[in-house]
Amino acid sequence: xxxxxxxxxxxxxxxxxxxxxxxxxxxxxxxxxxxxxxxxxxxxxxxxxxxxxxxxxxxxxxxxxxxxxxxxxxxxxxxxxxxxxxxxxxxxxxxxxxxxxxxxxxxxxxxxxxxxxxxxxxxxxxxxxxxxxxxxxxxxxxxxxxxxxxxxxxxxxxxxxxxxxxxxxxxxxxxxxxxxxxxxxxxxxxxxxxxxxxxxxxxxxxxxxxxxxxxxxxxxxxxxxxxxxxxxxxxxxxxxxxxxxxxxxxxxxxxxxxxxxxxxxxxxxxxxxxxxxxxxxxxxxxxxxxxxxxxxxxxxxxxxxxxxxxxxxxxxxxxxxxxxxxxxxxxxxxxxxxxxxxxxxxxxxxxxxxxxxxxxxxxxxxxxxxxxxxxxxxxxxxxxxxxxxxxxxxxxxxxxxxxxxxxxxxxxxxxxxxxxxxxxxxxxxxxxxxxxxxxxxxxxxxxxxxxxxxxxxxxxxxxxxxxxxxxxxxxxxxxxxxxxxxxxxxxxxxxxxxxxxxxxxxxxxxxxxxxxxxxxxxxxxxxxxxxxxxxxxxxxxxxxxxxxxxxxxxxxxxxxxxxxxxxxxxxxxxxxxxxxxxxxxxxxxxxxxxxxxxxx
Length: 600
Known about the structure:
Largest sheet: 24 strands, antiparallel, barrel
Strand content: over 45%
Distance between the termini: 25 Å
Radius of gyration: 25 Å
Structural class: mainly beta
Number of strands: 41
């Protein structure tokens, strides 16, 4: 269900709450690194709204009723309002999705410009002031420090949410804490570029799409994980801050200001982060906007980094768009060529998607409060993707043949990476899905670097590799998802095999058990690294649940355990009990136990 404030709400037969936010019709990119997962920009599944849903199961099937407070939906008061609206129904037994307002084959519920309408709404936007305090007790023990005794620390803080207008909200936070947030998923870097870890902290997730500018997953002018998280995932205390976000007529506005404390052991000083964003919505899915991102060290006038950017999108009818951005950075160590830009054309209709784009990032482009997958490159790319409905022939629901290419050249016209992907997705009515692809790759290495302790020498490496993905119906009691890449790598071979086994009992218990084995056999050595993971979730009621996340990283010889029990009230408030444990083969590393209560 969706209104023009671009929120959606969902549930399942036992009434589990599911919600999210959509920006820019959900458009965003997955990370360019083939070893990484995660999508950012345009679609925020982790947003947590205040609403209630009740479901009932009977001979007729099941149905649900939603009660969504008007204060959860940001809108202007007025008579005879027209709201965008749509419903989605997932029919698992036939692997079908049905919509109230029909959509072309390649679109889903996030295609806001094609939603249905509700008319004749006479609504008064309610005032909204929420004070959300928390109290916390924490016991930690660092076995690696010079003082390994257990330390006890109480803490308190609060958030305030105030509706400045019916469509503009002010959020204030003091002594911000994210103890209840799930830990990051372990990754092993099999390349020479930056890994991407998605944002999970609730304060930064709300209206996150408003601040998304650049090329998501590759060049993000603002990346909220730079605030309150150290370079290796360490916690940096957030003193407090404010966010103003919303819409004035057809203008989206956003302002964020956060203060972080120093961490002497990491050499991190006190900082103030500021982000200002404006985006003017035009007709025909078009827009134009600007962003300013600033980090100021509070202990020195010469400690700063600034990013300036403009972006826009031009909608051509219902089928095509031309979009792009231009940005520049400034810091005391400023260097030449500190600019970045992208221009992309996209066509989507009748099951066909075609994209042609060019991105350039200067060697001196340095958005310290952003994310760069890699720097100093010129990149052309293209994609042609077709969905073909099979109408049950051979048991198939759909075929998805496609081809994509991306290449990275440095400013000396040296080809550093080339990736040509040819694939087809075979999708059956019963939920089985198989991807059969082949990749043709080039890696140009100028300076030697290490992968898991193995040196890769300078040179140009041309290879091909087979790629196979298999997924069974995820709605079944047991389901499987596997991915294999077999081929050449940096003058040798690599065998990347990952798989996930899912097991559920009804709608209360869900679990996933995953393994990823990376076998590299390079000219200067060989290595095998393994990642193991297990996620467990049990819902006693729709608002009382237990979650567990166990991980093992063979390269770091590290085990981690994250257990969370929660009794939720609404909008991510309630009682949270969290236990974290990190240890190596030989001894414990770090352990913590947290009890937190927050109320709205």
